[in-house]
Design a protein that fits this description.
One of its GO terms (molecular function) is sulfide:quinone oxidoreductase activity. The protein is an alpha/beta fold. The chain is built from 12 helices and 21 strands. The chain has a 5-stranded parallel beta sheet, covered by helices on one side. Strands 10-17-11-12-13 form a 5-stranded parallel beta sheet, covered by helices on one side. Strands 4-5-6 form a 3-stranded antiparallel beta sheet, with no helix packed on it.
């Protein structure tokens, strides 16, 4: 079944590229995507990923069977001659392709396009425990699951992802906390008939497309409508997604000939569009060209679903008292509540580590698992590593980040098993395929230097069709059949 799905994906890619006069090989050459070697043929993929097997032995437990956990398990299986790996994961659909949520919400994908069975990707020989780790005892190298099973380990990898904290927003307390995948009944029930949506839930992304179509149809019918898009005051996964859904709403309005009847406004908590100045400037120019508005330093604090009013904490700094000794003014943060009416509201909820991890001995004051940002090794426990959304790594909550992280983690874990120094370093590489239109993507690549780090000789601030092909047709098979095999 997986080979059939892959072949179908490749046929779609080839057909789309043919329209542009490109072969798959040429497209990959232009894109500079060396990690996509497996898309070319098996022998090239094997040559690109072959490594000397290590005879080191240890019991390895991975908490979390999503993209990070399965990819890491697969690479460990490829690297160790006698692997002993256990994955603890409660959701049988945990490897579903979450980056596709934005495309579901804009009518490009359907939910079926991104859903997979985790069991189809578990590497041969890896033990799978369908349960949730809820207690951690790192001093004794063991943990306990929700069903009461005690699991011992020599090395622990925490790849449990994060939770959506809708309940932190006044008016949404009934939702509480949720995962992107899984039961979304509280989200759907609370948001029903309100014009409120969130792509950060997969089922919520389906509802977003329904709400977007109603919003577009209202504008097409001549109604003056307001679309509001938020970005919270916490770390989030896929930091570009709050803007992507706004761009795509704009695109659907233009397509319907109804753009002039809609006002679209972005309300980010921060003071820029993007942490990398070059991409910030590019996005501002794109917003201006599309007549999309924005208001910095606004954090969503409440939603009145009946009256369709979003309340924001608008915050800014002013000069306070003058310090004679320091010869400078203190800066005082000011606040005011701002009420904004909406017809369509997209919420990017605050996000957090699951309490059972964040509040445990392996967590931190901010909840995320504290690791050395380069080696991904826990700052306190040498036999614990963390990866993906839950790791306290700057700018590291994207699938593109994980593609670099899991290779570093495996190298360093094997080195630790062999009693060697941890020499592999994660340099903060992150990639954000920022969808700016139906058919256009700006491929933002960067690292901790906060400078563009393009892997191809093209201006990275430009929107391009080739990156749309990459995003819509190539990244999913690269992820599902490359990373989850430990080879991409």
């Amino acid at each position: 079944m997986l080979k059939k799905d892959l072949q179908e994906s490749l046929e779609i890619i080839d057909n789309e590229l043919k329209k542009q006069g490109l072969s798959r090989r040429d497209a990959l050459k232009v894109a500079g995507i060396g990690s996509a070697a497996f898309l070319l043929n098996g022998s090239e993929a094997e040559a690109a990923t072959s490594a000397q097997a290590s005879d080191a032995k240890a019991k390895i437990v991975i908490v979390g069977g999503g993209l990070s956990g399965i990819a890491t398990a697969a690479r460990l299986t490829n690297t160790l001659s006698n692997p002993d790996i256990t994955i603890i994961e409660p959701n049988p659909k945990s490897v579903s392709y979450q980056p596709g949520n934005t495309l579901i919400a804009s009518g490009v994908y359907t939910k079926d396009d991104i859903m997979y069975d985790t069991k189809d990707f578990v590497p041969s020989g890896v033990t799978m425990i369908q349960d949730k780790a809820v207690e951690f005892d790192p001093e004794n190298n063991k943990l306990t699951t929700e069903k009461g099973q005690v699991v011992n380990y020599d090395f622990l990898i925490v790849a449990a992802g994060l939770k959506l904290n809708f309940g932190q927003i006044a008016g949404l307390e009934s939702i509480g906390e949720a995962y992107t995948l899984g039961d979304a009944s509280k989200i759907l029930k609370t948001f029903a008939n309100s014009g409120v949506s969130s792509i950060y839930s997969t089922d919520g992304a389906v509802a977003t497309w329904e709400n977007m179509q109603k919003f577009v149809n209202d504008a097409k019918a001549g109604k003056q409508v307001k679309g509001v898009f938020t970005h919270p005051n916490t770390s989030i996964k896929c930091g570009g997604a709050p803007k992507k859904i706004m761009y795509l709403t704009n695109s659907r309005l233009v397509e319907a000939g109804a753009r002039k009847n809609a006002e679209l406004t972005f309300y980010p908590n921060g003071g820029t569009m993007f942490g990398v100045p070059e991409y910030h400037e590019a996005i501002v120019n794109q917003f201006k060209a599309r007549d999309m508005k924005w208001n910095y330093n606004h954090n969503l604090t409440g939603v009145d679903l009946e009256k369709k009013i979003a309340t924001f904490d608008h915050h800014w700094k002013e000069k306070g008292e003058y310090d004679v000794d320091l010869e400078e003014y203190s800066m005082v943060t000011k606040h005011e509540n701002v009420e904004v009416p909406f017809d369509f509201l997209h919420i990017t909820p605050p996000m957090k580590a699951p309490d059972e991890i964040g509040n445990s001995p392996i967590g931190s004051a901010k909840g995320w698992v504290p690791v050395n940002k380069e080696t991904l090794q826990h700052v306190k426990y040498d036999n614990i590593f963390s990866i993906g959304d839950i790791a306290a790594v700057p700018m590291g909550k994207t699938g593109g980040s994980v593609r670099k992280q899991y290779k570093v983690l495996v190298d360093n874990l094997v080195a630790a098993m062999e009693g060697k120094p941890l020499t592999s370093k994660y340099e903060g590489y992150t990639v954000c395929p920022l969808i700016t239109d139906i058919g256009k993507v700006m491929l933002a690549e960067f690292n901790w230097t906060k400078k563009p780090t393009p892997s191809f000789p093209l201006d990275p601030t430009q929107e391009r069709y080739i990156w749309w092909i990459l995003k819509v047709y190539m990244l999913k098979p690269m992820t599902m059949y490359g990373m989850l095999s430990g080879k991409a």
